[in-house]
C-alpha cells in the first residue's frame, strides 16, 4: 500500500510539471510556435529520459532506499511527467543486455501498436458520435 502512495504522489507532481512545462514554453515562445511542432511533448520526453537515466545510474551505485526513489521518482514522477522515459529505459536495457534485435522489435512494435491503437480509438469515437 505504501508503494502505491509513493507512485501516486510522484505521479501527481509529474503530471503537474508536464502541464506547467507546456504553459511555460507556450508563454515563452508563443502559441503559434508551440502548435507548429509538439515542442512541449518533445521537451518532457527528452528531459524525462535524461532524469530516468540519471536515476537509474544513481540507484545502480547506491542501494540505500533505492526502491522508494524508484517508485516515487521513476514510476511516479517520471511516469506522470512522461511515459517515454520508461520506454527509453526498457529499450536501453535490452540494448545493454546484448539484445539489439529485440530492442528494435520492441521499438517498432511500440510505435506501430501505439499509433494503430490511437487511430482505432479515434475511429471508434468518430463513429460513435
From TrEMBL:
It catalyses: fluoride(in) = fluoride(out). InterPro entries: FluC (IPR003691). The chain crosses the membrane at residues 37-59, 71-95, 101-125. One of its GO terms (cellular component) is plasma membrane. Na(+) is not transported, but it plays an essential structural role and its presence is essential for fluoride channel function. GO terms for biological process: cellular detoxification of fluoride. Keywords: Cell inner membrane, Cell membrane, Ion channel, Ion transport, Membrane, Metal-binding, Sodium, Transmembrane, Transmembrane helix, Transport. Na(+) binds at residues 79, 82. Pfam families: CRCB. It is a multi-pass membrane protein. It is found in: Cell membrane. The keyword Transmembrane applies. GO terms for molecular function: fluoride channel activity; metal ion binding. Belongs to the fluoride channel Fluc/FEX (TC 1.A.43) family. Fluoride-specific ion channel. Important for reducing fluoride concentration in the cell, thus reducing its toxicity. NCBIfam families: crcB. This is Fluoride-specific ion channel FluC.
Amino acid at each position: 500500500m505504501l508503494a502505491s502512495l509513493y507512485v501516486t504522489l510522484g505521479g501527481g507532481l509529474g503530471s503537474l510539471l508536464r502541464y506547467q512545462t507546456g504553459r511555460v514554453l507556450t508563454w515563452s515562445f508563443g502559441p503559434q510556435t508551440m502548435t507548429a511542432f509538439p515542442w512541449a511533448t518533445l521537451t518532457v520526453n527528452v528531459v524525462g529520459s535524461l532524469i530516468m537515466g540519471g536515476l537509474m545510474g544513481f540507484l545502480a551505485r547506491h542501494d540505500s532506499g533505492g526502491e522508494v526513489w524508484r517508485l516515487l521518482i521513476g514510476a511516479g514522477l517520471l511516469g506522470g511527467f512522461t511515459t517515454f522515459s520508461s520506454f527509453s529505459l526498457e529499450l536501453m536495457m535490452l540494448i545493454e543486455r546484448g539484445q539489439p534485435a529485440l530492442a528494435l522489435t520492441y521499438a517498432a512494435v511500440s510505435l506501430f501498436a501505439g499509433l494503430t491503437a490511437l487511430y482505432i480509438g479515434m475511429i471508434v469515437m468518430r463513429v460513435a458520435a
